[in-house]
Amino acid sequence: MEQTIYNQVVQANIELHSKLSEHYNTCEPHFRPENIAKVEANLKKVIDDTQATKMLDLGCGTGFMINIGKKYVKEIWGVDVTKAMTDRIDKSGDCEIVILNEDTAQAALPVNYFDVATAYSFLHHLYDIKPTLHNAYNSLKEGGKFYADLDPNYYFWEGVNKLDRNSSYDFIVKREIEAVTYKDEDIEKTFGVSKDIFNNAEFGKNIKGGFKEEDLISMLKAEGFKEVSLFYHWYIGQGALINDTQYSVEDRFKYADVMHQMLQKALPLSKNLFKYIGFVATK
Ligand SMILES: C[S@@+](CC[C@H](N)C(=O)[O-])C[C@H]1O[C@@H](n2cnc3c(N)ncnc32)[C@H](O)[C@@H]1O
Fold this sequence. Notes:
This protein is an alpha/beta fold. The protein has one domain: Vaccinia Virus protein VP39 (Rossmann fold, 3-Layer(aba) Sandwich), CATH 3.40.50. Helix content is 47%, strand content 19%. The protein is built from 14 helices and 7 strands. It has helices spanning 2-20, 24-27, 33-50, 64-69, 83-86, 130-139, 154-161, 171-181, 183-191, 195-201, 203-207, 213-223, 238-242, 249-265; strands at 54-58, 75-79, 96-100, 114-120, 140-152, 227-235, 274-282. A 7-stranded mixed sheet has the order 3-2-1-4-5-7-6, with helices on both faces. Strand 2, helix 5 (83-86) and strand 3 form a beta-alpha-beta unit. S-adenosylmethionine is lined by residues 10, 13, 17, 30, 59-61, 64-65, 79-82, 85, 103-104, 120-122, 125-126.
């Protein structure tokens, strides 16, 4: 039974991402320059801290992390089950890029080889993240770092899922209800992918409801990671503030940043206001 669901989740991912692949880089908001700049700063830090030359990107898709990483390292391996996604990876430049079209839980990776492993907007696509964490851990050198980001924060998703679509909330709340609870309707309409396929493909988000900080820490420690540093980002209303035309562009980003700093100070009380969770784990 477990194995059947496991296989269904992998197959749902292949079906969904084969359909999305053509539009993926233009539809997904994480490809916006301001987000790329933030992710680049995070990745550069782990690359600098480990003096990395070899990077592994799990669930690499069309190469979002590979494009950033290839400026800084000599060799990148990308692993992804959907060939239609990896066919779009730009392999130009001096960095050697190796692509494996395999399940990250089972991919045959070299042991003690990589300085840095990454997983961006990926772990919530798995039925169970443990075998993939195990593979990432084994493939890293001692002292190597695993940077994962843009996974759903359970506490935010839980709060939004309890809200009623028909109540009169502010636009920023209504928008989250649609994006979190009814995204499957939108995907069905736009890409012709059934709700079941979409929900299985995002099993860790749509079925399990996102990741809890405490579960991530205990799973990573159980694999052997010595240090785990977690962070929350992208609070509710941040997008609306950044796009609010009553302020100059410069002010919008400044206010958004001030708000971010305040909510960070208010952690853990503010943790259910952040949509995403990420971590850096050190072997
Ligand atoms: C949301 S996309 C993220 C792609 C890329 N990391 C990015 O940020 O643009 C998720 C990717 O995970 C891949 N995927 C899903 N399950 C997988 C698995 N078990 N093993 C390898 N790749 C998988 C999908 O094919 C898809 O390309």
